Amino acid sequence: MTPKTLSYLSHWTVYVPVLAVAALVLTWGRDLPPPAVVLAAALLAGAVLAAVHHAEVVAHRVGEPFGSLVLAVAVTIIEVALIVTLMISGGEKTQSLARDTVFAAVMITCNGILGISLLVGALRRRIAVFNPEGTGSMFATVAMIATLSLVLPSFTTSRPGAQFSPAQLGFAAFASLGLYLLFVAVQTRRHRDYFLPITTAGQVIDAEEHLEPPSSRAALTSLGLLLVALIGVVGLAKGVSPAVESAVESAGLPQGVVGVVIALMVLLPETIAAVRAASRDRIQTSLNLALGSAMASIGLTIPAIAVAMIWLDGPLLLGLGGTQMVLLALTVAVGTLTVVPGRANVLQGGVHLSLLAAFLFLAASP
C-alpha cells in the first residue's frame, strides 16, 4: 500500500463505521444497560459524522445534482428500515409511527434544513441565491405527495379513522413513487441545470473550482463505507430507541415524539451536509438535500410501508390531525413565497426555523 492509502485507512471516518457495526452485532436484540446506551449513542453520532464525510466524497466525484441524491436516498432507505423494524416489534403503539416520522421528516427538511441553509447562506453573502425553477419544482412535488399521503386519509370514508383502504393506500404508494422517479429523471437528465449551484450573480457552477475530484477508487471506497456507516446508524438507533421510548413515556410526552426523535437522528447527516454546502455558497446544493430528502422520505417510505402492510397486523394511521395540517399548510404557503423569487435573506431563514420550533413545541405539548 502507498503512504496515501495507509493514511486514508487510518482516518477515523474509516474505523468509526466499522466500530458502529461491530457494536450493532454485539448488542442486537439485547436490553442495553445505561452505560451501553451511552456508548451506542456516541458511536451513533460518530457514524453520522462519518456518513456525512463519505457522502461528500461521493458527491464531489459524481458532481451535482447526482451527489445530493446519494445521501438523500441512502438515508431514506435506512429510515424505512427503521420504521418497519419498530412497527414489527412495537404493536399497537406504533400504528401512527410511519405518519409521525414522515411528517416530522417533512417539517425538519422543509423548515429546519431549508431554514438554516438560507440563514447560513444569507449571513455569508447577505443574500442566498438559488434556482427558482429547480427549487420550485421540488417544493411543489413535496407539497403534492405530502397532501396525498398524509392529509387525504383524514377525509376519506372507506375506512374509519385516519387510514386508507388497501386500494387507496396502493394508489397513494404508486403515485408517490411515480412522482419521485419522475423528479429524479428531471433532476438528473432533462433539466439538470435547474439543480446546479449558482453564484450571487446568477452564474451556474457545474464543478468544484478549487478541489480536484477524488479518484474512482476513493469514491467507491467511500460509497461502501457510507453504506456501512448508515447500517450502523439505523442499527444503533434501533438499539437506543427503547431508551428513547422509556424517556418519552417517563417525561409524560406524547408517543408521536418518538417519531420526531427518529427523524432527527436519521436526518442529522443531511443537516450537517447541507450546512456545510451553504457555508461554501452552494445554496442550491443545500436545498437539493433538504427538499430531495423530504421527497424521498415520502416517495420511498409510503410505498415501502404499503408493501410491509401485507404481512403487518393492525391498522396504519396516516392521516394528520388538525394541528399538524395547519403546520403543513403554513409550511407550504411560506415555502412557496420563499422559493418563487430565487433569492432569500435572513428573515426567510428565521421564519422557517420559527415554524420548525413551533412544530417541535406542539409535538411535545399538543
TrEMBL record:
GO terms for molecular function: potassium:proton antiporter activity; sodium:proton antiporter activity. Residues 37-188, 222-362 form the Sodium/calcium exchanger membrane region domain. The keyword Transferase does not apply. It is found in: Membrane. Keywords: Membrane, Transmembrane, Transmembrane helix. The chain crosses the membrane at residues 12-29, 35-54, 66-90, 102-123, 135-155, 167-186, 218-237, 257-275, 287-311, 317-339, 346-364. GO terms for cellular component: plasma membrane. It comes from the Bacteria. Pfam families: Na_Ca_ex. It is a multi-pass membrane protein. This is Ionic transporter y4hA. It comes from Actinoplanes awajinensis subsp. mycoplanecinus.
